[in-house]
Amino acid sequence: MEGILPLYKPAGMTSHDCVFRLRKIFKMKRIGHTGTLDPDVTGVLPICLGRATKVAEYITDAGKAYEGEVTIGFSTTTEDASGETVETKVVDKIITREEILAIFQNLTGEIEQTPPMFSAIKVNGKRLYEYARQGIEVERPSRKVQIYNMTLLDERTQFEGDTISFRFRVSCGKGTYIRTLAVMIGESLGYPAHMSYLQRIQSASMTLDDCYTLEQVEELALAGEVQSVLKPLEDGISDLPKYEISDKVAEKVKNGVVLEIPTHLEMVEGPIAVCLADGTVLAIYRKHPRKPGLLKPDKVLRNEQ
């Protein structure tokens, strides 16, 4: 069995919990998820089975889209609804729709984020959440992330009350913390804030409409029909630039030879999908670090002779 299972991750489970459950359902070990979702977060979690585990890292690096809710008026230790309250400040003014939209505009593009203490980022060989659970605050390196667009999912023209909540949709690049984005929205308005709800609605090319729940997957497994709902590994890397090759060159690619960079890919700095005319991806290549004009294999996906 191989392919990508678009799983709907329920609240209350970690991404690893989902993988553990699926290993028991499928009675196979070669399963991997494609980017951690916090326990409270629901939504699209592509699961790679068999050979498709080779493309898991590229799906993890692909763009994501979320629908979330930010609550203005108090912040939490975890930057989401599961944490303890850190700071409270009554919202003592009317916030206009125009103010929020202007902040969304300012936060679109390349922005800098500092990962939350309750996150899986490693500092000095230890994950931040391990420090956080011990009550230790450590310096976290800021990093640049890409916000493609933000949309306000609320028709109100004015927002008022001791606390204010509104929903939004965001499309972003890898490594973005939506919890931190919610805090940044609050800071821009002059108030502590946290993310009170979050659902991932898209990961790479997969959306909520593609997803199956764990219960549905279990039923499919009992009926022996799981393979029929798996997506080909190509779907997980459909956003990568393509380099189409002939059947003759394909045999060399399967053996990991270096290739000349075609003209249309000279400006590409990231991974490139080397494929046949029918769209079958044989390998992922990158620019050779020491030999200008050449590509070297990053990962060979199919090497059958």
UniProtKB/TrEMBL annotation:
InterPro entries: PsdUridine_synth_cat_dom_sf, PsdUridine_synth_N, tRNA_psdUridine_synth_TruB, TruB_C. GO terms for biological process: mRNA pseudouridine synthesis; tRNA pseudouridine synthesis. It is an enzyme of class 5 (isomerase). It catalyses: uridine(55) in tRNA = pseudouridine(55) in tRNA. Keywords: Isomerase, tRNA processing. The active site is at D38. Residues 179-235 form the tRNA pseudouridylate synthase B C-terminal domain. Residues 23-178 form the Pseudouridine synthase II N-terminal domain. It holds the Pfam family TruB_C_2. Its EC number is 5.4.99.25. Coiled coil: none annotated. GO terms for molecular function: RNA binding; tRNA pseudouridine(55) synthase activity. CDD domains: PseudoU_synth_EcTruB (cd02573). Responsible for synthesis of pseudouridine from uracil-55 in the psi GC loop of transfer RNAs. PANTHER family: PSEUDOURIDYLATE SYNTHASE TRUB1, TRNA-PSEUDOURIDINE SYNTHASE. Belongs to the pseudouridine synthase TruB family. Type 1 subfamily. This is tRNA pseudouridine synthase B. It comes from Mesobacillus persicus.
